[in-house]
């Protein structure tokens, strides 16, 4: 509760190498909410990551909130061979 709703606006970025390639994430967080996210890298995909980014915008920047959003989608459609754990690690 210390962070959510009280933290100042900030940006967060991370680079992760995994079996399927290299991924970079860039997030803007304001009051504990993801207001912008961009995912780049060298990896294979079937669906554009912009769809995944849209799903994540506007949610709380907590692992629980992200897990809730991605639980019903196939992450490998957006980033080939990525696990839920690797994806969570990418944005935290």
Name the descriptors.
92 residues; three-stranded antiparallel β-sheet; 4 helices
Walkthrough of the structure:
- With 92 residues, this protein is α+β, with helices and mostly antiparallel strands.
- The protein is built from four helices and three strands, in the order E-E-E-H-H-H-H.
- It has helices at 49-56, 63-70, 75-78, 84-90; strands at 10-18, 21-30, 33-42.
- Strands 1-2-3 form a three-stranded antiparallel β-sheet.
- The protein is globular, with a radius of gyration of 13 Å.
- The two termini are 17 Å apart.
What radius of gyration results from the CA coordinates?
A: 13 Å
Query: What is the terminal separation in angstroms?
Result: 17 Å
The largest β sheet comes out as: 3 strands, antiparallel
β-strand amount: 25-35%
The assigned structural class equals: alpha+beta
Number of strands: 3
Helix content: 25-40%
- Strand order, main sheet: write it out: 1-2-3
Mean pLDDT: 91
Q: Based on the structure, what is the oligomeric state of the protein chains?
A: single chain
Q: Give the overall form.
A: globular
Uncertain segments are none
Order of helices and strands: EEEHHHH
